[in-house]
Amino acid sequence: MKVYNTLTKKKEQLVPIDDKTVRMYSCGPTVYSYAHIGNMKAFLFMDFLKRSLNYLGYKVKNVMNITDVGHLVSDADEGEDKMIKTAKSTNKTPWEIAAMYTDAFLADIKKLNIQRPNVLCKASEHIEEMLEMVYKLYDEGYAYETSDGIYFDIAKFPQYGRLSNLDLEGQLAGARVAVNEEKRHPADFALWKKAPKEHIMQWDSRWGMGYPGWHIECSAMSRKYLGDQFDIHTGGVDHIPIHHENEIAQSDAFLKKQAVKYWMHCEFLQVDGGKMSKSMGTAYLLSDLEEKGYEPLAFRYMCLNAHYGKKLNFTWDGIEAAQKSLNRLSNLVLEHKESDTHIDSNVIEEYKQQFREALQDDLNLPLAMSTVWNAARNNVKSKSIYNLLMDFDKVLALDLDKKRTEAADDIPEEVTLLAEQRLEARKNKDWKKSDQLRDRIRQLGYSINDTPAGQVIKKG
Ligand code: AMP
Ligand code: ZN
Fold first, then answer.
1. E strands in 206-351
2. Measured from the CA of 71, which atom of ligand 1 is nearest?
3. Which domains does the chain have, with CATH numbers?
């Protein structure tokens, strides 16, 4: 498989460090509120990647963290801890908040057929591992103490900024007045924060009671479960400039070698062409989709139709179309299941090959989906195609052999396509072709009428 590596800005052949198992770490949710469907896009990306690697014959071990401490309102260590903020406003403890939203997250990923990572680890249970790294970085001069914490000194790590092509000098010149004047550089980041007495979550350290910075959790937990060096690290593109730069700086400085070989990032989900926003009510949850009658798997289907590296625009029309296509696809799959017609094994092999090649090319799922549709739409209905599509479903995980009801107004894609071709033929005054296409549409059980408003397709 070839993957696009954000670090080298190139598509590279994926070669597992230990030649056997691909070890992969994904930044998980901060459990201070419900994860929205944008977050789910990032977790679906992790799942598509893992399933594709498995499909292509790689063994995979993957780890995801649950952030239940240390993620401040701003990713750059400013503001209150998100967990504590929610806890205060709801009169609950941060632990209760974490438990509630972790359960909600697990329920959502189950509905989306996202396989639970092999290891799902909580930040608050790995303070010792984090402190081990902080102590060493401090002792070796990579970090310094201020009145409110221990900060990583990016000047000691010359490669800082490589992942995001950060122009540090430009950033420094244009920086707002540093909020924390004790920092040597505005981009220096907290490894450990000293806790004021009233701070709810705190642990003992060399510098008294405190709590970890957000970034160190990923470095410490990935190291614990995947070893010093591992293959793939995933996350959303928003993490490139701060969180992941910081992870690289602290891990690589700690190890004195490169911890992660391939950095992979998924682009954002937008809503109606803009940023998802809580205040505008567009940070939709999976439950919002369900309330409107859409299956969570329709959202999964939607994400399969855009490359992970491209922005995806969510609209209600879009999810409606995704649900209809999923219904149609499932019904086609079931038609193949019921039929014993023989099909040449070369045809099956060809589809398989196309599907694999699409996955191998940096997880080109939209291309893989075109093969899925071509196979499903094959005029020969055959159990072999059913078996093939169910094999593809190991990656897609759309429950393709589920009986899904197509609403009366659901016009199958095949019919829509023929109708479009008929329109084109009529434009070209090719009446013979137009009649042939109308007959073909009739054979599929649909009628077509030309009205002043255009052609109208009906079932029956
Ligand atoms: P958080 O809980 O904020 O740490 O985010 C969890 C994951 O969701 C991270 O990998 C983020 O990069 C990702 N993420 C956040 N918003 C979006 C979005 N609109 N589209 C895609 N991924 C997102
Ligand atoms: Zn992370």
1. 208-212, 230-236, 260-266, 269-271, 312-314
2. 4
3. 17-266 (3.40.50.620), 323-410 (no CATH)
